[in-house]
Write a structure and sequence with these properties.
The radius of gyration is 21 Å and the shape is globular. α3 packs parallel to α4. A 7-stranded mixed sheet has the order 2-8-7-6-5-3-4, sandwiched between helices. It has 2 domains: 241 residues, Type I PLP-dependent aspartate aminotransferase-like (Major domain) (Aspartate Aminotransferase, domain 2, 3-Layer(aba) Sandwich); 129 residues, Aspartate Aminotransferase, domain 1 (Alpha-Beta Complex), CATH 3.90.1150.10. The longest helix has 21 residues. Helices cover 40% and strands 14% of the residues. The protein has 389 residues and is of the alpha/beta class. It contains 12 helices and 13 strands. Bound molecules: pyridoxal-5'-phosphate (PLP). The site of pyridoxal-5'-phosphate has 15 residues, from α3.
Length: 389
């Protein structure tokens, strides 16, 4: 199997699995308990938080562990909107459903929203985002790297523009894609909250975190026993947090050794070889800065789904547009937002720091073969599917 669906989820690192197993077995006490076993669990929790903080260059107490990227987005967007006085939101038109569904919930509660479309290069304009902000804007949400296209959004520039305003709205950044291969410094972005997920960087699924700028106003989604400094109630999932801490440490060490640049070089090679090998294939977007791990390829006149199945039959796992694509039909909102027509199939091939050059070469050969088969077999039948992952 050649696994090129790392934007959907990555293989957990051995060190992550070992640490989680040990903690799950040995540190089962409640971190809030006053006895020595509880204290040991609490120490492990804080050590994990410190690892994550070090990778982000923030203070550990600014991080809240969550059940994943989706909850971190919900806490950032819903929490900030409910704590604000204004009732207006500004979001990009191609945020992940973790953000868009939270925004829809707020709209049902009476908020209004401006959705900013990207250009054909898959990037929103910082000036367009800033221009949509009003005195009653509660939250601006802009993702770091778009999960289907890989394009990096001008978050720091948006942060600077918002800081110039007399009443600055809350800036939420979904950094789930990119963190682990892109150097992420939440403070330098000018963000108020930044959402993260462990399973995109060889950590466990169901583990995430929200960075919260000191002083940012946020209403918890639930309070419970007041854990996580009152910002997220519920006994902490210690194995998940420890796994995330390990994954963050490994990602930091890999980035220090040049993992981001190495993955970007492999991605470029994959795209160039695929474009050369498949007639008509082209990168879905050009010109924009991108996260290293996502290659998005457009195949005019070729449907994505049969192409994906033909690839699968050759042992290559990728996704159409985006990961959780496979259970939904209809064109993906992200692909629609950049003006892509329905007759162009789009595949997302996503790498990790574990992907090898040999895998990339074999995947391109499989892709060329798969495209020949699909071109020979079927007229265009299926549109790109909508996606979430
Ligand atoms: N945000 C983005 C951009 C994502 O790609 C994902 C992952 O699918 C999420 C949020 C949700 O993260 P999780 O799967 O940890 O809930």
């Amino acid at each position: 199997m050649i696994y090129l669906d790392n934007a959907a989820s990555t293989r957990p690192a051995e060190e992550v699995l070992a640490a989680m197993t040990q903690v799950g077995r040995d540190l089962f006490a409640n971190p809030a308990a006053a006895h020595p076993a509880g204290a040991a669990a609490a120490r492990a929790l804080e050590a994990a938080r410190a690892e994550l903080a070090r990778t982000l260059d923030v203070e550990p107490e600014e991080l809240v562990f969550t059940s994943g990227g989706t909850e971190a987005d919900a806490l950032g967007v819903l929490g900030a909107a409910r704590a604000a006085r204004g009732r207006h939101l500004v979001v990009t038109a191609f945020e992940h459903p973790a953000v868009t569904r939270a925004v829809e919930a707020l709209v049902a509660d009476g908020f209004s929203v401006d959705r900013i479309s990207p250009g054909p290069d898959g990037v929103v304009g910082a000036e367009a985002v800033a221009a949509a902000v009003r005195p009653d804007t509660a939250v601006v949400a802009v993702m770091l790297a778009q999960n289907e296209l890989g394009t990096l959004q001008p978050v720091a520039e948006i942060g600077r523009r918002l800081a110039e305003r007399p009443r600055r709205p809350h800036l939420h950044v979904d950094a789930v894609q990119g963190f682990g291969l892109v150097r992420l410094r939440p403070r330098a972005l000018g963000a108020d909250t930044v959402a993260l997920s462990a399973h995109k960087l060889h950590g466990p699924r169901g583990a995430g975190a929200l960075w919260i700028r000191p002083g940012a106003r946020l209403q918890p989604l639930w309070v419970g026993g007041g854990q996580e400094r009152g910002r997220r109630g519920g006994t902490e999932n210690l194995p998940a947090a420890v796994g995330f801490g390990q994954a963050a440490r490994l990602a930091r060490e890999a980035m220090d050794r040049g993992a981001g640049e190495a993955v970007a070089a492999l991605r470029d090679r994959l795209e160039q070889a695929a474009v050369a090998a498949v007639a008509g294939a082209r990168p879905t977007v050009v010109g924009a800065a991108r996260t290293p791990h996502i290659a998005s390829l457009a195949f005019p006149g070729l449907p994505a789904e049969p192409l994906l199945h033909a690839l699968e039959a050759r042992g290559v796992l990728a996704s159409a547009g985006s990961a959780c694509a496979s259970r939904l039909s209809g064109p993906s909102p992200a692909l629609k937002s950049i003006g892509l027509d329905d007759r162009t199939g789009v595949l997302r091939l996503s790498l990790s720091r574990k992907t090898t050059a040999a895998e990339v070469e074999a995947a391109v050969a499989a892709l060329a073969d798969a495209a020949r088969e699909v071109r020979g077999a079927a007229p265009f039948a299926l549109a790109n599917r909508a996606g979430r992952g």
